Amino acid sequence: MFDRHGGEMPSDDLTTLARADAARLKLLAEEILPRLGDMQVLKSGTGLVMLPMRDTVQGVEFHLGEVLVAEAHVRLPSGTEGYGMVTGRDIERAMAMALLDAALSDGTAADRIRAFIEAEAQAQQAEDTETLRRIEATRVDMETF
Amino acid sequence: MAYVATRGGERAIEQSERLYRAQMGQIDAARVAEIEKALPALVDRVMGEASLYAPDLAALALAQSGGDLYEALLLLRAWRTTQPRLQIAEVVAPDAGFTHRRISAAFKDIPGGQILGPTLDYAHRLLATEVLEDQPYAPPAVEPAAKPAPATHPSLAEWQRAQGLVTTPEAAPVPRDEIPDLTREPLLFPAKRAHTLQSLARADTGGTLALGYSAMRGYGNSHPTVNELRLSEVEVMVAHPDGRRFSAGRVKTSQAEVVTTKGKGELRLGFTATLGWNEVKCISAATLDLNAPGAEKNSPVEEEFFLYHTEPVESSGFCIHFKLPHYVTFQSSLDNLRAAKSAQAEQAQPTDKEEETA
């Protein structure tokens, strides 16, 4: 998925935060919020992300359609910025992600957030593995086909 | 102006809308959530045709329109225009999705194997009428394999390219913001391939099936075989303002590649992908793509013909506009018809023989 347009390797932390359980994510953000001071909200709202794909016949890149996302962009008193974007329309969820991103960059509650990301990443990995075990059950065994 | 004013019908219009909405009664969040959960195939179909990936909004549009698909699409396409475009995601490679289903009807031993995934293809089509007798139907649980399947599978077309079976040259990549976009520019013919594929991704499932089926039955120039059919979830890769790349989440996509051996010593392919899982649309639209090169003008597999006629909002909108009062135009036509008839009657002096046969 990380195609030729991409530069550096994708950020696993941000990907994990975007996919994190919404309730747990918001809870942690609420817990850390008082420690962040008077922050500035630069962006908070829903919008669209156009999703292009490459065709297998001629390798032409084309637009599949748009994905609804919620986006948040904040700036802490220190000037450190945080950003969140998640699929769907849950603006609070995007804001929680932006707060945690800002806190992590600022070194506020970094250990707590790191532990959260690690736990969520493990849960996501376990969920994927379980899904893939169910998918594997539908593999056709061509030896006996 | 061809339409008469409908001011006199204000009350009737108001009451007719109420009468329609009374069928569905009160709509609440629980109903929308139930539609999203219970009807994933329908929600996916609507998202693909609306060209907007938002399962809860698609379910809401279905609830609000009482299941009228074209009304639901119109609601979603209209709502979409209220939203700003924040980014263009990274291009999804066709073999990069988290794959749930991936089969080939052309090759038995494809690299990565045949993964059926979720499907009713081999199910008995028996209506569970006992549900109506208060015996709920609970599907038997999936028995997971000990080992997980690979999350991704190689592209079959790439494998065929490596074997020399397909020699179509690959297009050069373009900057993301220069990918042609039908939502911002008109569809002109001959269409850019990016426009054709975007148009098919948004196309009406029933429309692509009808035209694709005509090609499958012999009104096209190539018979399709499914080279590869894939249902995936792909990552929506976006950019943090500081440049870091991450996935904002996964969305369901389907893609089909059909193949014909009627080429100049090599395989020829057709392709379609769409948002959501919708196999019939992808296979029939890929069949149209396969048949389009060199198609006869005004035939169902000619690009201009199928792209114009499978646009769901335009086609349904044009169809339903015929219900609007056309009294003036119709009256005018009727006047012409009557005038022509009376002119004919005055001019023609019927013979006795014509009168007998009349």
Helical element count of chain B?
Answer: 13
Q: Beta fraction of the residues of chain B?
A: 5-15%
- Biggest sheet of chain B, in brief? 4 strands, antiparallel
Helix percentage of chain B: 40-55%
Helix share bin of chain A: 40-55%
In the residues of chain B, how many domains can be counted? 2
CATH architecture of chain A: 2-Layer Sandwich
Query: Could you tell me the mean pLDDT of chain B?
Result: 92
Listing every helix as H and every strand as E from the N terminus to the C terminus, the arrangement of chain B reads HHHEHHEEHHHEEEHHHHH
Looking at the structure, what is the overall shape of chain B?
globular
- Main β sheet profile of chain A: 3 strands, antiparallel
Oligomer category: heterodimer
What's the shape of chain A? globular
- According to DSSP, the number of beta strands of chain B is 6
CATH class (first level) name of chain A = Alpha Beta
Q: How many structural domains does the protein architecture of chain A include?
A: 1
Rounded mean pLDDT score of chain A: 93
Structural class of chain A: alpha+beta
Q: Write down the secondary-structure element order of chain A.
A: HHEEEHH
